[in-house]
Amino acid sequence: PLALKGLRRRSQLFNFCASAAHDPQLQAPCVDTYRMPRFARTLLPGSIQHIISRFVNRAFRLVSEQERDAYLLRLSAALARCDWTLLGFALMGNHVHLCALAGQLPSMTLIKPAHTGFAGWLNRSQGTLGPVFAQRHKTIVVPPEHALRLLAYLHNNPVRARLADSPSASSWTS
What CA–CA distance (Å, rounded) separates 49 from 43? Predict the structure, then answer.
């Protein structure tokens, strides 16, 4: 519609759509034109968080000991630079589970350097290009009374996937 033609930035479009909510003649063009931004992650310092990251197309990108060690090396370097504490992990072929104690900084200060470094290393080592991880990581705040249950879930992940006979037999968990 003509009313939208002069709007160039999202903020202008958002203001237009907000004002159009009160004008029935202008309301229809805004329905599919503007997508609301995603919500900011809730930062709860001291909380236990279950972090899940999947690889693009759920592809099996973490299959060798060398890849596992490369991921853990980058994760430990990221942990040294932020105030988060890793409580446990499970590295599966097509996704990663982390259990961490949140610090004062957002989870991106842990995940971004670890995943960016690993993605670069993996792409160089496999001669590929493009993203390795799908979307943003998912974070779930876990009540403290369920922390041991979460760690058991992480350590039993390879058993449920039939990659190991018992949690202690897997080298892919903490």
Answer: 10
Checking phi first, is residue 24 left (phi over 0); if not, alpha (psi -120 to 50) or beta?
alpha
**DSSP character at residue 169:** G
**How far is Cα 43 from Cα 95, in angstroms, rounded to an integer?**
23
pLDDT 10s digits, 23-67: 455 444 444 455 666 667 777 899 999 999 999 988 888 889 999
Closest CA to 95 of 62, 64, 138: 62
| Six-digit token string for 127 | 């001669």
Q: What DSSP state is assigned to residue 16?
A: H
The torsion angles phi and psi of 33, rounded to 5 degrees, stand at: -85, -35
Beta bridge partners of 48: 101, 142
d(C-alpha 15, C-alpha 32), whole Å: 15
- Is residue 21 packed enough to be buried (19+ CB in 10 Å), middle (13-18) or exposed (0-12)? exposed
